[in-house]
Predict the structure.
Amino acid sequence: LAWAEIPPTRTRRLIGNVQVVDTSSSDELTVFSNFVVYSNRRDSTGEIFAGRRTDVLRRSNTSWQVASRHILLDQTVLLTDSLSILF
C-alpha cells in the first residue's frame, strides 16, 4: 500500500474472448484474451484501458503459472497522469 493510494483506486478488470492454443509442449499453453480495465480514483472521472493480452502458461507441479505476458493496448497515447495498474 503506497501513500499515493490512500484511498485506494477502485479498479475493475473484464476479460473476454479467451482462446487457448495448444503448443508442442504438454507443459505449456499460449492463451490469448481481450481486456478492459476501468479505474476510478476519488471523485474524478475514470480511466479506461482496452487491449489484447498474450500469456504463456507453464505447468508447475499441480498448477499453472504465468511464464510470460505481452500486453498490446488499443490506445496509441495514454491520457493519464500515472499508470499503476497491473494488466
In short: Strands lie at 10-22, 28-40, 47-60, 63-73. DSSP finds no helices and four strands in the chain. The longest strand covers residues 47-60. The mean pLDDT is 86.
